[in-house]
């Protein structure tokens, strides 16, 4: 099985020049990559105003040593994908959109529009999130985010496949309403992030693919077993679930990157996204230069 190679859009390091952003996407496409993956945050926390926030974030599920805060620049993912849909032919994937802090109908509408503008190139990667204060700022219930996510997935698929929806629950009463224009993909594929047992079971039951964002390939086996068993219990074929590995590629040497890529491939990953963020690269050009070196090494290695 061939692996679709993508690139994590360097959200916090690419800057704000639209021309540079367009050039980055077009350079990634010219190098032969398949898709772009977008990290998502709406607001960041000012730690000088909320002391102790980082410790709380780690308790709530943040995996990085320094959680993203108010000084980390995040382009809004739906707007960015709409912009890039018109300047490149790459696939577009949120990795991840924090779904429970958003209105379901609005996400359905935005995703359908990105799918229309891109000609059906969207994968909607979603998860429950870890930033309690971001939920607070958006008027969403952090402690109920997991059951809300499951109900939202069902409602999103209704919006994308039915002319009109009658649904009571996750966002109140939606009666006799629908979306136009309709998405190209009906439904748009929904991929889920997850690392804990309950979220892994959710992947198997509900998702079209899995984004194991916090896993090393060597540690993936037990989690993958949970996903596959859950899919089987739900009457689904585990072989039909995609897997997108995340491959740090900014500061690592090429031999290490190639070895890690082979590990993802051996595990059966359908997609692998190279992540050049967080390694001291400066601006879009530096990221493209490193991506070109990695792609050349993969070609030399027979990929």
Question: How would you characterize the overall build of this protein?
Answer:
Helix 1 (18-30) packs parallel to helix 10 and helix 3 (77-85) runs parallel beside helix 4 (104-118). The relative contact order is 0.15. Strand 9 (209-211), helix 8 (220-233) and strand 10 (242-248) form a beta-alpha-beta unit. This protein is 40% helix and 17% strand. It has helices at 18-30, 53-59, 77-85, 104-118, 132-137, 145-161, 197-206, 220-233, 254-266, 283-300, and strands at residues 4-8, 35-38, 91-94, 97-98, 122-127, 165-169, 172-177, 190-193, 209-211, 242-248, 271-275. The mean pLDDT is 94. The protein has a single domain (4-300), classed as Luciferase-like domain (TIM Barrel, Alpha-Beta Barrel). The protein has 303 residues and is of the alpha/beta class. The protein has an 8-stranded parallel barrel with strand order 1-2-3-5-8-9-10-11, surrounded by 5 helices. A two-stranded antiparallel sheet has the order 6-7. The protein starts with a strand and ends with a helix.
Largest sheet: 8 strands, parallel, barrel
Q: Look up the CATH topology.
A: TIM Barrel
| Secondary structure tally: strands | 11
Q: What topology, given as strand order, has the largest sheet?
A: 1-2-3-5-8-9-10-11
Low-confidence stretches: none
Radius of gyration: 19 Å
Order of helices and strands: EHEHHEEHEHHEEEHEHEHEH
Q: Alpha-carbon distance between the termini? A: 12 Å
Strand content: 15-25%
Number of domains in the coordinates?
A: 1
Mean pLDDT equals 94
CATH architecture: Alpha-Beta Barrel
Can you give the helix content as a percent range? 40-55%
Number of helices: 10
CATH superfamily grouping = Luciferase-like domain
> What is the global morphology?
globular
CATH class: Alpha Beta
Q: Given the helix and strand composition, which structural class is it?
A: alpha/beta
């Amino acid at each position: 099985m061939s692996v679709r190679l993508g690139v994590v859009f360097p959200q916090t390091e690419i800057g704000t020049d639209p021309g540079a952003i367009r050039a980055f996407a077009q350079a990634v496409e010219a190098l032969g990559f398949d898709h772009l993956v977008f990290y998502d945050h709406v607001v960041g926390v000012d730690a000088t105003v909320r002391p102790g926030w980082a410790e709380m974030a780690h308790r709530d599920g943040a995996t990085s040593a320094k959680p993203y805060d108010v000084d980390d620049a995040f382009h809004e993912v739906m707007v960015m994908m709409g912009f890039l849909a018109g300047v490149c032919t790459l696939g577009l994937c949120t990795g991840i959109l924090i779904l429970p802090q958003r209105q379901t109908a609005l996400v359905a509408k935005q995703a359908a529009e990105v799918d229309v503008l891109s000609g059906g190139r969207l994968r909607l990667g979603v998860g429950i999130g870890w930033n309690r204060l971001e939920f607070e700022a958006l008027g969403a219930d952090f402690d109920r985010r997991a059951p809300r996510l499951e109900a939202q997935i069902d409602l999103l698929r209704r919006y994308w496949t039915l002319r009109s929806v009658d649904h009571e629950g996750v966002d109140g009463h939606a009666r006799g309403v629908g979306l136009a224009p309709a998405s190209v993909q009906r439904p748009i594929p929904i991929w889920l992030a997850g690392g804990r047992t309950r979220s892994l079971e959710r992947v198997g039951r509900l998702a079209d693919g899995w984004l194991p964002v916090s896993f090393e390939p060597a540690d993936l086996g037990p989690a993958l077993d949970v996903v596959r068993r859950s899919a089987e219990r739900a009457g689904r074929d585990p072989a039909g679930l995609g897997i997108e590995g995340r491959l740090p590629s900014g500061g690592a040497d090429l031999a290490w990157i190639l070895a890690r890529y082979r590990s993802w491939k051996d595990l059966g990953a359908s997609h692998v996204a190279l992540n050049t963020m967080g390694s001291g690269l400066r601006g879009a050009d530096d990221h493209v230069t490193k991506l070109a070196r990695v792609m050349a090494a993969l070609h030399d290695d027979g990929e």
